[in-house]
Amino acid sequence: MSADRYQLWGGCFEEEPSSVLRRLNDSLSVDSRLFREDIQGSRCWAAELHRSGHLTEEDNKAIQDGLNMVEKDVEEEMLKNGRLRDPEEDIHSVVERRLFKRAGVAAQRLHTARSRNDQSATDTRLWMLGSLPKLHAALKELITVLVDRASNEIDIIAPGYTHLQRAQPVRWSHFLLSHAWALRDDVTRLEEQKSRLSRCPLGSGAIAGCALPIDRMRLANSLGFEDVTPNSMFAVSSRDHLVEFFNWASLCGLHLSRLAEDLIIYSTQEFGFVRFSDQFSTGSSLMPQKRNPDGLELIRGAAGLLLGEAFGFSCVMKGLPSTYNKDLQSDKELLFRTYDRLLDCLKVAAGTITTMEVNNNKAFSCLDTDMLATDIAHTLVRNGFPFRQAHHVVGSILRRASALGVDLKNLPYEEYHKICPEFKSKEELQRIFSWETSVEQYTSLGGTSRDAVNHQLDILRSWLGSTQLTCTK
Ligand code: ARG
User: Which of 120, 124, 239 has most ligand 1 atoms within 8 Å of its beta carbon, as the pocket-test mutant?
Assistant: First the structure.
């Protein structure tokens, strides 16, 4: 062991590892972020060793007091410098060396029957259990923002698009909620990860389990886990909870990117349905007039990066031999990157949507009566006409209107009647040309009528009030 570096291994080595290997192998710059979890894991591990008769009262006390001091020191240094300057390879070695300084030889009993394999797996799961509720809260916040806007803006009717071509008029709220529902499922999917995540690997050792009789369930519960991992080889080799999380994050990112893209399009001068606040817009260094939606573009781009992380990590895992292999160390780098990126995106999306202005007149002015063509066909259907024939009739009417250079509203009733005598009266036809009447027809569950949208709002509001994620005690 080199004098300046406390190393947890190396007794049988004659030479130091090469500096390039060190650089590749060292993980402190990443896993120092787990210092609280690492220390908490050690506290509970020492307490369990003590309870099961493998650590004296005195040594346990020295370790517990020492860990408290180490935590305080590390906290202060992290706050001051943003990182740890210790020469050790990872956070586990740092904590043990610092503990040795504080607690003396008792520190050398702490790693009894423990391996960094079960230790780092435990730290990561603990960190996730502590952190996922923050993503959960940020997602709920974004859904709340969408629900609040949808509730306030239920009177606004805007064009709805398919293929980015005008399709049918819809309530603006209906559009907003279409994104809220996708995110609602993301929340549920996040909650579903908890039971698989909340299994404690500690006590699995390097691979074979723990040779000292300890109570793993008691240990797991003391750390706030619901259960223990059921097989020590599985415990140190599995990163399924991370694969699941990365895939979840990439789906959530995908949803955010679609929301972002809609809003980017709606913010263009050509659409002009929304205008972003100064707080959530950026400018150009050359063109003074520019207001750019960089935040939303970054969210759209982040979705690609999140997908890349998920795919990349699955590639790392594919074909790995049992059980622990150092390939697994990359899990934390990707975890922190994914987590930070997604959390920022959620917050920027919520801020952008809270502070944007909606130009209902502009949205309204983009409605054109061709968008009521389906409603005209439905009128014929209500008169007993087969839908397919009605569809063709309206097609002919559209052609006729275009030939005469008028829109559907201004095409004389006589022209309608000439093409299809099933049009019963001028009044019946005129009633169709109201945006409000149009959207109010869609009363089925999940439709765009006022009642159907209010129903969605009720469900989402009561769900928002009831769902929460608490992962640790
Ligand atoms: N830092 C490693 C990781 O995060 C844990 C250390 C296990 N090291 C080992 N040589 N078995 O995966």
Answer: 120
| Ligand 1 pocket, residues with Cβ under 6 angstroms | 27, 90, 116-117, 120, 324, 328-329
Residues with Cβ within 8 Å of residue 312, at least 6 apart in sequence = 334
Ligand 1: which residue has its CA nearest to atom 6?
Answer: 116
In tens, the pLDDT along 37-92 reads 999 999 999 999 999 999 999 999 999 999 999 999 999 999 999 999 999 999 99
- Could you confirm whether domain 19-112 is CATH 1.10.275.10? yes
The helix (H) or strand (E) run that includes residue 118 is: helix 116-152
pLDDT at 166: 97
357 phi/psi in degrees, rounded to 5: -100, 140
Q: Which CATH number fits domain 369-441: 1.10.12.10, 3.30.70.100, 1.10.40.30, 3.40.50.10840?
A: 1.10.40.30
Tell me the pairing of strands 227-228 and 199-200.
parallel
Rounded Cα–Cα distance for residues 173 and 394 (Å): 29
Which residues of the chain does CATH 1.20.200.10 include?
117-366
- Nearest residue (by CA) to ligand 1, atom 11, is 117
Look up the pTM and report it. 0.95
User: How far apart are the CA of 115 and the centre of ligand 1, in A?
Assistant: 9
- For the annotated catalytic residues, the residue numbers are 163, 284
Strand, coil or helix: what is 53?
coil
CATH number 1.10.10.10 given to 117-366:
no
- Can you tell me the mean pLDDT for 166-171? 98
| The pLDDT value given to residue 15 | 86
Query: Where residue 303 falls among pLDDT bands split at 50, 70, 90?
Result: very high
Q: Residue 362: is its pLDDT beyond 90?
A: yes
Which amino acid is present at 304?
Answer: G
For the chain, what percent of residues have pLDDT higher than 90?
A: 93
The answer to whether the CB of 91 falls within 8 A of the CB of 39 is: no
Ligand 1 centroid, distance to 244 Cα (angstroms) = 21
CB neighbourhood size of 284 (10 A): 10
How many angstroms is it from 195 CA to the middle of ligand 1? 25
pLDDT digits (tens, 9 = 90+) for 215-237: 999 999 999 999 999 999 999 99
Pocket-testing residue among 34, 122, 324, 331, ligand 1, by greatest number of atoms within 8 A of Cβ: 324
User: How far apart are the CA of 190 and the centre of ligand 1, in A?
Assistant: 27
